[in-house]
């Protein structure tokens, strides 16, 4: 129904405020709206600016736009929003479910890449559980393309943030079913995530997979053997971990200056925020 418009139509929508352009029925108007929104998002310096709240209800539309070209611009703007807006966490469920159903089925690789980036950014802003929930739901989708992208996103999340942030149990639970898929692409992706999970928990992964097809198990064994034996370390951290790390570094450098070359100045232990988080978690699990 979006037929060619006369110049008259164009001049009408051009006068509209950004948020109205973003919801316009003409794709050209929406494209212009998303482009403007992206520029606004890049300019806002304060993560708590009230400007962010104006767009809260629109971010899902950005990622689920029915026009593929416009959708790419929407995804780009959404990513910047999630990265920088203090209110972005409120949109996690609806936006990630929109990414799963309306982005992961797109033919363009760029759309999938941006969709995955958005999911990972929500994890970084402390929304791992909600993201994981939507991705796990996506594994039941009838479209294998969507299933593959959800497994890939879970694998990347695990590889980057580690097994303290990404819960392995629910993924391991569905692995045997994924290995039984009729779709080769799904089975291949299941194999990749099984290799990634093995990096983090090693032989604890064997019992849950003992009943999968023996050929598949043998293929996994061959991959597992190649993995380095050391404990893997995450390469990406949650905002809270980043802040903790920054605080520790600040204290250490302040401490270092204050020592003024005292004897024990070099004994300040280097604390790793990740290990600290681990210690806190272990303490919380001990019986009270």
From TrEMBL:
SMART domains: TOG (SM01349). GO terms for molecular function: microtubule plus end polymerase; microtubule plus-end binding. Transmembrane segments: none annotated. Coiled coil: none annotated. GO terms for cellular component: cytoskeleton. It is found in: Cytoplasm, Cytoskeleton. Residues 241-270 are annotated as: Disordered. InterPro entries: ARM-like (IPR011989), ARM-type_fold (IPR016024), TOG (IPR034085), XMAP215 (IPR045110), XMAP215_CLASP_TOG (IPR048491). One of its GO terms (biological process) is establishment or maintenance of microtubule cytoskeleton polarity. Residues 7-233 form the TOG domain. Residues 260-269 have a biased composition (Acidic residues). Its main location: cytoplasm. Keywords: Cytoplasm, Cytoskeleton. It comes from the Eukaryota. This is Cytoskeleton associated protein 5. The lineage of its organism: Eukaryota, Metazoa, Chordata, Craniata, Vertebrata.
